[in-house]
Amino acid sequence: DVWAGTQHGLLRYDGISWNQFNVSNSQIPSDTVLSIAADGTGGIYVGTQQGLVHFANGIWDEYWINTISNAVSALCVLPTGKKYCISGNDVYMYENSTWINTSQFADLTILGEVFSGASSIIATPQGTPLFNGPQGRVYEVVQNKTNVFYFPILRNIGNLAESLLDTDEITGEIWMVNIRATNIIES
């Protein structure tokens, strides 16, 4: 299946026809779909303007985020099944049926600067979460420790990250596209 998120709901193409899922015909919490991630077993997670849901075998399950905005702008599911998402510029990890704001982790604080400003998150080819942050930084969580990479060329105006991360599934390269430059992160 091919899935697409729109401002008018979630679309699925099954090779023959398109189906639309929206608030009037499904349990999706918002027609504004911001992110989609496969769960590795045939289902998908859908991040919307009003929260996160899981859809598999015709069943919708809610995974609400306890933030001010509830909007889930980006998400990824690791091969282990652990889930990470971005809501309100913060990164959350789903563990033991609870969403944990990772900005609470001491190693995300650099020189007293509290982490905020993530806009993109991916699972690396090694199965770890990688997300961007303020001031040209990229963070990778490896066994509950955070590695921080700094890209001076990616510094931007203000404190918000304005880059998009993605993985080339063929080469394993990780790409970061920014309003100022494009870089390959060695994987």
Brief rundown of the structure:
The chain is mainly β.
Structure, described:
A four-stranded antiparallel β-sheet has the order 4-5-6-7, with no helix packed on it. It has a four-stranded antiparallel β-sheet with strand order 8-9-10-11, with no helix packed on it. It has strands spanning 2-6, 9-13, 18-21, 33-38, 44-48, 51-56, 59-63, 74-77, 83-87, 90-95, 98-101, 121-123, 129-132, 137-142, 145-150, 163-167, 174-178, 182-185. It contains no helices and 18 strands. The protein is globular and about 45 Å long. A hairpin with a 6-residue loop joins β16 and β17. Helices cover 0% and strands 47% of the residues. It has 187 residues and is mainly β. Mean pLDDT is 80; it is low at 156-161.
Task: Give the SSE map.
Layout: E1 2-6, E2 9-13, E3 18-21, E4 33-38, E5 44-48, E6 51-56, E7 59-63, E8 74-77, E9 83-87, E10 90-95, E11 98-101, E12 121-123, E13 129-132, E14 137-142, E15 145-150, E16 163-167, E17 174-178, E18 182-185
Antiparallel strand pairs: 1-2, 2-3, 4-5, 5-6, 6-7, 8-9, 9-10, 10-11, 12-13, 13-14, 14-15, 16-17, 17-18
Order of secondary-structure elements: EEEEEEEEEEEEEEEEEE
Mean pLDDT: 80
Annotation, overall tally of beta strands: 18
Provide the gyration radius in Å.
Answer: 17 Å
Give me the side-by-side strand order of the main sheet: 4-5-6-7
- Structure classification: mainly beta
**Main beta-sheet strand count, sense and barrel state:** 4 strands, antiparallel
Low-confidence stretches at least 5 residues in length (pLDDT < 50)?
156-161
How many helices? The count is 0
- Classify the beta-strand content into a percent band: over 45%
Global morphology:
globular
In whole angstroms, how far apart are the ends?
Answer: 29 Å
Query: What percentage of residues falls in helices of 4 or more residues?
Result: under 10%
